[in-house]
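pinging the channel bc i need a second pair of eyes. not urgent but kinda urgent?? the chain im working w is below, pasted from the shared doc
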Amino acid sequence: MEPSEALRIMNDDNRGKNVSAGEPSSSKPKSVICIKEELKQGCQDRVPGSWEQLSIYQFPHYLKDGNDKAWVPQVLSLGPYHHGKEHLHYMEQHKLRCLDNILLRAKHKRDLYLNSVRGVEESARACYGGAISMSSNKFVEMMVLDGCFVIELFRGFIEGFKKLGYHPNDPVFSIRESILKIQQDMIMLENQIPLFILDLLLGLQFGEPNQKGRVAKLAIHFFDSLHPNSSTFDEWELDRLSDHGSVHCLEVFWRSLLPLGQTRSKTEHRPRSWKLFIPSLTELRNAGIKIRLRYTDNWGDIKFEDRILSIPQLVIRDGTWSLFLNLIAFEQSHFNCSNYITSYVVFMHNLINSPEDVRYLRNKRIILHCLGSDAEVADLFYRLCQEVAFDIEDSHLYDLSRKVSLRWNRYSRIYSRWNKWRAVLKNQYFDNPWSIISLVAAFVLLVLTFIQSLYAVYGYYKVGS
């Protein structure tokens, strides 16, 4: 027997004797220590102050579908969740370059920024869910580097990077594709830093501490190209959005998509009289409901009046799926948060049941997209809604959905077989001018063929007589 094996058996025997003799153990088992530590952590988590400032969340597992490019940054990391990942290391040197440029331009020392952020470190850590294992110095340095990079990006995008001292051939700021990738990364749920950190750093640059709301305005301008339709913001809207005290850039952009009064979730109780069913676009059209483009700056403001469903224009780009997914994840994670984006996406998912539905919306200019096919658009809405936790009774579109469903049910009962066939014929063969021309041409050809046959028969009998 090996010495180590004999020593293990002796120790086991001794532990058995101690237990049988009732003698106290000299050390507690590791499992007991772990349980006590977990209970201690659980008690801390139950203290309201421990989650009062929580606003930057980890992406919900149930929304992940295997494609991590939708929620994992590909170029730029902000905050602790993805800090230090190898594929994001390239941008770290450019963060340092931005900080040095700020210090040179403002004639400041680096310690001014480090010490200022260290004073609010505890509040910044409290914004993140889960334990952040980074040391104090490393966390503060990360906040300063990330925050200064974001501010330079916002200012350069609006004022011009050359004005801030960057070369026209800058390896990051002069390449449009690089900016687009950074935009997509900065709108991700896990890739946020607290807005008050950005306000603080911007105030240090200008020597004016009170900069609240200014970063929010810069953020709205920066993310404007990601807006789901072609609307733009006027100064009154920018003032309204910047005064709400958002917690990070994703929430700033989220608020810019909402109308007034839609930031909080609905709490009123609705009677569950019957199960609400939203028919597809094809089913609605077959029931005589017309679909129209609604001209409005509020992209989610869908209306239903006099058998006409009016839908604002939606622009779908390559990054739209990631954008909507992160906005939905924010609504699913944030306390007492409106589900405005989720409601819209779920409603559109119910309408779009096939590529043909997308084609019809595209012909009506309700959907504009640059994806490879209409089938990809239909798949986009299907993937977005696959695992979403959603109660339609809390949706701002609940009343509209109920009216549409009731109208569809009534028309489904009273429409005669002929009327249904007539609606189908109209939708399939008379929904655009080319279909009408093709059908008329086919009819004319049929008539000419009949006349030709008639003359042939007539000539035969005439010759015979």
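so Residues 1-26 have pLDDT under 50 and may be disordered. and The longest helix spans residues 433-464. — does that match what u expected or am i reading it wrong
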